[in-house]
């Protein structure tokens, strides 16, 4: 455990994907009002970059870092503030919508920002009442219809 080393989250870059919270086995993070906060900095292990290595936007840096480490996302084009959620799972329409959005994201070089949300309870909690759906950065973009690749690209471009 460390007193001179802990993660810091840049709230402007954080997209609330909870990757850091889910990754850390040391109880460093807490969810508070839909945000992730560093609540137990002393629980962090010295020079562990686990949460920073998986942060899709490069929002995590470390107090006390003397290693020269750079967030991997900071060197990728996907280090942009975008979270793309495609909802729906079992029907052909939902599958086709997912494939179209994924292809659009690939063309825009942000495919690793796409999440396929298949759990109905989670879909309802996101506010989607009719699948397939598309949510970008928490905003419902489309619900109940299949998007073409071109339509999905236009929506995604607005957030890049």
Structural features, described:
By secondary structure, the protein is an alpha+beta fold. The chain has two domains: 6-75, Alpha-Beta Plaits (2-Layer Sandwich), CATH 3.30.70; 84-157, Glutaredoxin. The chain is built from five helices and eight strands. It has helices spanning 19-23, 50-54, 92-107, 120-125, 149-157, and strands spanning 6-9, 29-32, 35-38, 60-63, 84-87, 114-117, 133-136, 139-143. The radius of gyration is 17 Å and the shape is elongated.
Summarize this structure briefly.
The protein is an alpha+beta fold and 160 residues long. The protein has helices at residues 19-23, 50-54, 92-107, 120-125, 149-157; strands at residues 6-9, 29-32, 35-38, 60-63, 84-87, 114-117, 133-136, 139-143.
């Amino acid at each position: 455990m460390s007193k001179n080393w802990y993660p810091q989250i840049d709230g402007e870059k954080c997209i609330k994907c909870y990757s850091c919270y889910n990754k850390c086995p040391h109880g460093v993070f807490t969810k508070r009002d839909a945000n992730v906060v560093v609540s137990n900095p002393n629980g962090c292990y010295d020079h562990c970059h686990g949460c920073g290595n998986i942060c899709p936007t490069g929002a995590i840096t470390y107090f006390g870092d003397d290693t020269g480490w750079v967030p991997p996302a900071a060197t990728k084009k996907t280090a942009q503030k975008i979270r793309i959620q495609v909802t729906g799972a079992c029907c052909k329409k939902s599958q086709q919508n997912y494939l179209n959005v994924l292809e659009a994201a690939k063309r825009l070089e942000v495919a690793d920002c796409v999440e396929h949300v298949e759990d109905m309870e989670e879909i309802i909690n996101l506010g989607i009442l009719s699948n397939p759906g598309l949510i970008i950065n928490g905003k419902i973009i489309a619900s109940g219809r299949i998007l073409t690749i071109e339509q999905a690209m236009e929506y995604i471009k607005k957030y890049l």
